[in-house]
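Usage

Read records sequentially. Each one opens with the input sequence:
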Amino acid sequence: MRARGARVAVYAALAVLGAVVAVAGTLVQAGWFPLGVLLALGGAVALFLGGARLTGTRIGAAAPAGGWTLVVLLLTTSRPEGDFVFGTGGGTYFFLLGGMLAAVACATVAPLGDFPPADLVKGR
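and closes with the structure output:
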């Protein structure tokens, strides 16, 4: 039962990290175009694959991807004043669609194994 609680805590932490990476990527992708888009997507992919590698499950990639997608979709909505975070342009759409495709790809090809990784348990 204790291991299950630890696993849920890790997934929740990964979802929160996904949200943080989404906010940071949203700000970077428009500010440093075109390298900002690549940096933002690279950070997202690193988190998705890192979560999968850490947990050894596909859910390890899906948890941060879910947090990332939720925050990015919430940031695309406009406020009553007419303001919004995302501008119109190719880089914005590349960031949105590229991040979602990266999330699906990382969850699909996630390495499966033990949680936690055997190297950590054995102390190597």
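Summary fields computed downstream for this record:
- The mean pLDDT is 84.
- Residues 2-31 form the longest helix (30 residues).
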